[in-house]
Write a structure and sequence with these properties.
The complex is a heterodimer of chains A (352) and B (254). With 352 residues, chain A is an alpha/beta fold. Chain A has nine helices and 18 strands. A seven-stranded parallel β-sheet of chain A has the order 7-11-6-1-4-5-12, sandwiched between helices. In chain A, strands 15-14-16-17-18 form a five-stranded parallel β-sheet. Chain A starts with a helix and ends in an 8-residue tail after the last helix. In chain B, helix 2 (68-78) crosses helix 5 and helix 3 (97-111) packs across helix 4. Chain B is an alpha/beta fold. A nine-stranded mixed β-sheet of chain B has the order 9-8-7-10-6-1-4-5-11, with helices on both faces. Chain B has helices at residues 37-51, 68-78, 97-111, 130-138, 193-199, 209-212, 240-250; strands at residues 2-6, 9-11, 33-35, 57-64, 82-87, 115-119, 142-152, 157-164, 167-174, 177-181, 204-207, 220-226, 235-237. Chain B contains seven helices and 13 strands. Classes of the chains: A alpha/beta (352), B alpha/beta (254). Chains A and B meet through helix 4, helix 5, strand 7, strand 9 and strand 10 of A and helix 3, helix 4, strand 7, strand 8 and strand 9 of B. Strand 10 (162-168) of chain A pairs antiparallel with strand 12 (220-226) of chain B, so a sheet runs across the interface.
Chain lengths: 352, 254
């Protein structure tokens, strides 16, 4: 225990004395799911690595209870590049509300003086990081897809129809959210574990806490592969015509061990719940195989699938815009094609 | 109770944008501009709350070029009571959420609304930051990506259903609060002709950065704007058997 605290203090002193050097130190706002660090946060570590050679990477976790301890233990061994895990343990953080989290980031930043703060561009990161940036008077750069240097980044604009290369010229910290599909996690093992230390919360500003209260949530069945990192995604659009027909898409997905996605039109029509929406304002996916059935291919939907390795489209309308991005297209009735695929496809493929 | 709604004038969602050959940005000359779709939803929600008797006034504000006034007029035609335009003469996607958030904070301190509603993101820069930032600056609670908003006037709270990665999350916020709207919150109304006529006499106040004592901070520089890599042209196949064959043997994804 004493060794961990000494290490933390040493690192902190080192950071504050090397003011003019190009020493990079990154704070990763880490999302955890019960007892494990979410893979999107590990993508944030991969992104941090590409900021520069000498980068001291710290992960910040918040929550309460035994699951937080387990998540911290997981964080300490999740990637060889992590040197430290900071843990904020309090009931305030039980539901990952933006208000206490932003105050926490401000507190940890003022003490630690990190050059960069990164979160994945998940609903957690998108909700919290900009609020924290405002408290630190820094313009954040969100949804980064490429890192060109410690202060130069590429991000999509206009639903991904253009890419903007920007340079951050402000004072530290440089704050980013990154698209996890652009920073792939490979299984790198590490020897030993990073140091874990507790964040002293005694001076945190309490005023805002309590003005926002968690009431409840509804979430989908956790058995299906996660849409954000599935190897194969099968999407249904308005052409499915009903929630009942979507079962056919689910059956095909099950056959392939795939995740199920949907267009905005399908969600608006009530065929499937909102968390399945793929697109500019829904989830961004980059699977090896993306199959779209009854999807016209609106600009906003294409924004969510551009980086897929192979795109397949099945639509009755030969002029549907989706065929312009599909690698393989089939002009036909999905109500004939999908059952035929289910029948003829080989059994569920295990990940290679 | 007063509600303030921040709206943005952007390239219309249906326009196929082109990147300028000199890579300085996206072509916006002679291109159709409209109110950002998420901002329309924000305005619609504010007007509905007023129509239900829970608010007395809806103020539509916009920060940007002189032409923003047209967008504010559309908002007035939809049902907002008055508008505020904070003029900024700069280019393209230049002002940035931090500066807009500072302007909105100053406007909130001036107007004292109990609710500030914004669209979750603008479809031009796709930042998804401004609402969160102004909430941080005001030290107000935030309900982002809202798909349902229910105000409780007596308790002075608002229940917000949020669309998050795992599904839907419900929060209860004390007023005053900031809400950002997601797609399914409501279907915005079209302005009727009588309302468009009425809107002509509703006031739009002009306010400057100096009036609000906001200094523009430039900490992000756009180096270039480029087109994304184009996908190779695909092929149209003629049967399911052919598709399976291609996926297995050519693409090797199954």
């Amino acid at each position: 225990m004493a060794i961990n605290v000494t290490l933390f203090r040493a690192l902190r002193t080192q950071r504050s004395t090397i003011a003019l050097s190009r020493f990079i130190s990154t704070l990763i706002l880490t999302e955890h799911d019960g007892s494990f660090v979410k893979s999107s946060s590990v993508s944030a570590i991969v992104a941090a690595k590409s900021l520069g050679e000498d980068n001291s990477i710290s992960m910040l976790l918040a929550g309460s209870g035994p699951s937080l301890e387990e998540a911290a233990a997981d964080a300490a061994k999740c990637h060889p590049s992590v040197s430290q895990v900071l843990v904020a343990d309090s009931d305030k953080f039980k539901y990952h509300l933006a208000e206490p989290w932003a105050k926490l980031v401000e507190l940890v930043q003022r003490r630690g003086g990190y050059s960069h703060i990164i979160a994945a561009s998940s609903s957690f990161g998108k909700n919290i990081l900009p609020r924290a940036a405002a408290l630190l008077d820094a313009s954040p750069i969100t949804d980064v897809v490429e890192i060109l240097g410690s202060h130069q980044f590429v991000r999509p604009i206009y639903a991904g129809n253009a890419l903007s290369t920007v340079r951050y010229s402000g004072d530290q910290p440089c704050m980013l959210t990154i698209r996890s599909t652009s920073f792939l996690v490979s299984t790198e093992s590490r020897l030993g574990t990073a140091a874990i230390s507790q964040v002293d919360l005694s001076t945190i500003d309490e005023e805002i806490v309590g003005k926002s209260r968690y009431v409840g949530c509804s979430s989908q069945d956790a058995e299906r592969p996660d849409l954000g990192n599935a190897r194969i995604v099968i999407t249904g659009g308005r052409g499915l015509k009903s929630a009942e027909n979507f079962k056919m898409i689910e059956k095909l997905a099950e056959k392939l061990g795939a995740a199920v996605g949907a267009t905005r039109a399908a969600v608006d029509a009530g065929f499937v719940p909102n968390e399945l929406q793929v697109g500019q304002t829904g989830k961004i996916v980059a699977p090896e195989l993306y199959m779209a059935f009854g999807v016209s291919g609106a600009i906003q939907h294409l924004a969510g699938i551009r980086d897929s390795k192979v795109i397949v489209a099945v639509n009755k309308d030969a002029d549907a815009p989706i065929f312009q991005v599909a690698d393989y297209g089939l002009v036909g009735d999905l109500f004939d094609v999908v059952p035929e695929l289910i029948e003829k496809l080989p059994e569920k493929q295990l990940a290679v | 109770m007063k509600i303030m709604v921040a709206i943005k004038r952007v390239v219309d969602y249906a326009v196929k944008i082109r990147v300028k050959p000199d890579k300085t940005g996206v072509e916006t000359n002679n291109v159709k501009m409209s109110m950002n779709p998420f901002c329309e939803i924000a305005l619609e929600e504010a007007i509905r709350i007023k129509e239900s008797g829970l608010a007395t006034e809806v103020v539509a504000v916009s920060v940007g070029l002189a032409q923003c006034v047209d967008t504010i007029r559309t908002g007035l035609a939809m049902g907002a009571d008055r508008g505020i335009h904070v003029e900024w003469k700069g280019e393209g996607l230049g002002l940035g959420p931090l500066n807009v958030a500072k302007v909105l904070r100053a406007l909130v301190e001036m107007e004292e609304p109990r609710l500030l509603i914004l669209g979750k993101q603008a479809i031009d820069d796709d930042c998804n930051q401004t609402g969160q930032m102004v909430a941080g600056l005001l030290n107000w609670p935030q309900g982002t990506f809202a798909s349902k908003v229910v105000l409780d006037k007596e308790k002075q709270t608002v229940m917000v259903d949020r669309e998050v990665d795992g599904g839907l999350e419900t929060l209860c916020l004390d007023l005053p609060a900031v809400i950002t709207t997601d797609l399914r919150l409501n279907q915005p109304r079209y302005a009727t002709l009588p309302n468009i006529m009425k809107a002509k006499s509703k006031p739009i106040k002009k306010v400057t950065f100096e009036d609000l004592k906001v200094k523009v901070k430039s900490d992000i520089e756009v180096i270039q704007v480029t087109e994304p890599p184009k996908r190779k042209a695909g092929v149209i196949l003629s049967s399911v058997d052919e598709l399976i064959n291609k996926l297995k043997n050519e693409a090797r994804v199954i």
